[in-house]
Amino acid sequence: xxxxxxxxxxxxxxxxxxxxxxxxxxxxxxxxxxxxxxxxxxxxxxxxxxxxxxxxxxxxxxxxxxxxxxxxxxxxxxxxxxxxxxxxxxxxxxxxxxxxxxxxxxxxxxxxxxxxxxxxxxxxxxxxxxxxxxxxxxxxxxxxxxxxxxxxxxxxxxxxxxxxxxxxxxxxxxxxxxxxxxxxxxxxxxxxxxxxxxxxxxxxxxxxxxxxxxxxxxxxxxxxxxxxxxxxxxxxxxxxxxxxxxxxxxxxxxxxxxxxxxxxxxxxxxxxxxxxxxxxxxxxxxxxxxxxxxxxxxxxxxxxxxxxxxxxxxxxxxxxxxxxxxxxxxxxxxxxxxxxxxxxxxxxxxxxxxxxxxxxxxxxxxxxxxxxxxxxxxxxxxxxxxxxxxxxxxxxxxxxxxxxxxxxxxxxxxx
Length: 415
Known about the structure:
CATH superfamily of the largest domain: NAD(P)-binding Rossmann-like Domain
Largest sheet: 9 strands, mixed
Number of helices: 17
CATH class of the largest domain: Alpha Beta
């Protein structure tokens, strides 16, 4: 069994969710890896995660939502394995030059993804990168091309694909249980950050040159990945992507404003789409919303029935949970394919799939190509809002439609 040496780049708020995934694999007996390097701009940020008993105290959580990975409890590398202590770096370039690593796991601000990932791939490292994979489609294309040229595995940490319910729904759809797919719906208005909080207490999420977009990128890539996973490729998108709240605020525990940002990236998207196979879809989300939230279970409708949230409803009167249907009808082989070793945690499945792809020299499910298509579909919303017309996803993938992205690409020298 080959030992995989891993560098974690970007010791931010999402780090605990990934560390918990590595620990879950370790506890399952997958122990052919060691985290050998931690990279952060500030040394103390890396020390915060290296070893229990050293470094600054954990950051307070930014959310109390148990379903949000940003709310995962703090964890240390030493809680996973204590026989190797990660080396600390404050420059990822130095890490690539000096450290003996095989895998690079990137959690940095979006605008840095392509530079770090391309350099790591050229250095012969396998790469996983947090979603959204890049600050523009051109930046994402550089990453995909670098992975192909260097024969390395590039994967996007798209947790939606590995969520248990979403995998079960995909299996039900593959069996043709609800017939030909007619429509997809994902709708939510208002969130933990409504109406005017800085999302996840990270100002960059509201800045176009740092994040690529706002809700369209942070949430949009999730929804479009799910739509594509269930219903096939999206052909075209028509959308509005406004900024409803012109100022967002960071507040202390007493409610006093300590920082603010004037967003130039959207906080809301309302989109219609047409799938290549003929179905239609609606995807909408907002970080705005005063005094209340509204939403509906993500759903998919077909010619024989529908799936609404976790329930399967058919024209013949069937009304069961998706889980119950899968338990009754799926083979043991299918269950193992969907949930190897019984893993039911999305982040843990991500890591397992990355390791599997590296070991078998194949693509991960959430490959770089998949991430690029998610990115192009999300940016199609922004391009549609600028063009005031439906936009073909192919136009965005090819670079033909780039009015929204052009300033970003010019800023980073990508055009």
